Amino acid sequence: xxxxxxxxxxxxxxxxxxVIGACSPGATSSPSSAAAPSASAAxxxxxxxxVANACGDAxxxxxxxxxxxxxxAVYKKAGEAYTKLHPNVSFTVYSTDLRGFEQKLTTxxxxxxxxxVVIRTANFLARFLxxxxxxxxxxxxxxxxxxxxxxxTVIQDSSYKDKVVGVPIFSSGTALYxxxxxxxxxxxxxxxxxxxxxWDYAGKLAKVDASGNVTRSGLSLRLSGQGSGVAEKFWIxxxxxxxxxxxxxxxxxxxxxxxxxxxxxxFSHYVDSLQNKKDSLNxxxxxxxxxxxxxxxxxxxxxxxxxxxxxxxxxxxxxxSISLPTGDLGGNETMYVPASAPNAACSWDxxxxxxxxxxxxxxxxxxxxxxxxxxxxxxAFLTANPGYEGFLKKPAGMKVSLTPPIAEFxxxxxxxxxxxxxxxxxxxxxxxxxxxxxxxxNTWADETNSILATNGHGS
Amino acid sequence: xxxPLQAVRAVPHxxxxxxxxxxxxxxxxxxxxxxxxxxxxxxxxVMSFFRWELIKPAEQFLGFDNYLNLLKDExxxxxxxxxxxxxxxxxxLSVFLAxxxxxxxxxxxGGRIGAGIEILYFAPVLVxxxxxxxxxxxxxxxxxxxxxxxLGGVGIGRQPWLSDQTxxxxxxxxxxxxxxxxxNLIILLVGMRAIPxxxxxxxxxxxxxxxxxxxxxxxxxLAPVTLFVIVITTISSYNVFTQVYxxxxxxxxxxxxxxxxxxxxxxxxxxRFFKMGYxxxxxxxxxxxxxxxxxxxxxxxxxxxx
Lengths: 459, 306
What we know:
The complex is a heterodimer.
Chain A: H1 2-23, H2 31-35, E1 60-66, H3 72-85, E2 89-95, H4 98-108, E3 117-120, H5 126-130, H6 139-146, H7 152-157, E4 159-160, E5 163-164, E6 167-171, E7 175-179, H8 180-185, H9 195-205, E8 207-208, E9 214-219, H10 229-238, E10 246-250, E11 253-256, H11 261-275, H12 286-291, E12 295-300, H13 303-311, E13 319-323, E14 327-329, E15 332-336, H14 344-354, H15 357-361, H16 363-367, E16 370-371, H17 379-384, H18 389-392, E17 399-401, H19 409-425, H20 427-430, H21 434-454
Helix pairs in contact in A: 10-19, 11-21, 19-21
Chain B: H1 4-10, H2 13-18, H3 20-47, E1 50-53, E2 56-61, H4 65-72, H5 74-108, H6 111-126, H7 129-139, H8 146-153, H9 165-193, H10 197-205, H11 210-221, H12 223-238, H13 242-247, H14 256-259, H15 262-272, H16 276-305
Antiparallel strand pairs in B: 1-2
Helix pairs in contact in B: 3-16, 5-9, 5-12, 5-15, 6-9, 9-12, 10-11, 12-16, 15-16
């Protein structure tokens, strides 16, 4: 009796020990490996084209991870088509908001629990590439990427340390959306073609009520919000004067580029717009403002076209988009296979499948983003969807800038964004005071340069 | 002073035998507590002395550099200031209002109506912070928010709840007090109902007014419960994150300075900038701040009770 009284607690302790042991990092098995049969093919060094059937015959589930939920339907559709060719391969698609996805990747890649195919930019994944947490791109795919199907900027954006590190799937870009009816009401017959015209139009299109409150902005500026978005939007407008947030001074070395005369002029436009009631901190901004007719113009990525069709269908046909005057910020989502992925050959084969023209052409109508390949005929698509004109018709000589391939860029951009938000809120004290603005810009530039220097990328 | 090991050795052998079942039953949960709480905390303290990236652990031993650099970090100082303002305002308001409501409910309302009111106040506690904050973001909306519409009804102009630095902090305090109030109310109400009525009846016979009964009987006897409520509210207030994160999560979001609370800063340094050692040092500071405040509250309230 006494002995049996001890056995139960001891059994309980042993069970808890097993639970704790199972929870330890070393004992954790990845979702991928749990789903994959042990006999599955492995080894990133095997190029898909070199394997007769990269996915073998055993049942395989490939987990596709991305940061843009609207792309899920594209992956699922491609997965269904791929399953018809390889009945033993099934798919799960997991996407969440971009920041949440980045945080998930940050913990999942080092702990070998990420999906079989992960999709994000080379810039974000630079740290992980340095640590060997992602597989090298197979030789045949690398040759394909470099073989003329992609624009040079897309190849550059998918490269790290002069080597292609991922396979591009879809691209972004920014255009100016404008409400045709509002422009017509203001006597403006064509959309603005230069930055001076954009600022001029912004003043003509803004509306103020009898109490002096702005009820409609002319140009909806990005003035608040967390993360780096505020600085990114500032950067996109800064590109129109030929400047970057940070410019390269020599290989691997950068310096702040936003505190010169053009940066000062752009920042002055922001605070002057608030001071002169062309925009307001208190009204809605961005796509929501455009869809609710609280703004006449705003600059954004192509996903807004699909968003308008869903949330503001009455606006379809009453708005247009036009390319920004001289510069754009390229953004290219790129596909990778984690180093620990158990079905690497099959994963690369599916990535190759996603670069197929049919799959690429399915991206704009399903998700609203642009295909990464340049050798596609989108004429019919543009005719049916004129809202994409600003993204598909770029002026000759348009310069496409890219996020520098330095891991600390997000930190310096996020910190600049915080400063910008605070300064915009202080517009009344800054508008008309270029000396104060210049002092602020210089202080922020010092911080930017300090972050670059700390990480070995200073000039 | 007795050290824990000495204290353990001082326990007679027969006591171990007598309570062995208790120790055995407690062992699994203590093991889990050690594994899930003590070990990560100790690891965080170790990390704080290193340059420790999320995917490059223990790169370089830095000693106290992370702690010293934090003291010079404008973001950290701002986060500490914002969090303290928020915590003080939220704790004072939510405890005071809960005490007031608990007194009214305990004294004047009972039965099903009382239970209904309690459920009503407790309901926000049960709802996840994210949907609640999304709802409040619409309520605070400058152009079409319910709050500004109600203020307009009584002749007060629209307030920029989410775009003005000061008003944004007020908005977060309002939201947080609304969320915390029900929890504090229920705890204080249970505490009040546990006070034997005989004391108040005796005081009433001696001619004590309602206020005198509350001041000299209810409040002193409620001190341990009040202490608990204040400590819990202070700790949860210093750990504020979700509200400000969601309120600032899109382009309609609140200003940058408001977002800068300590946990947000830890999150950003750790999971956005990958500086886990730096973030760990920040977390240790937060732990020390809350620990010191808790000790002060214990001493103050116990002293007052004595």
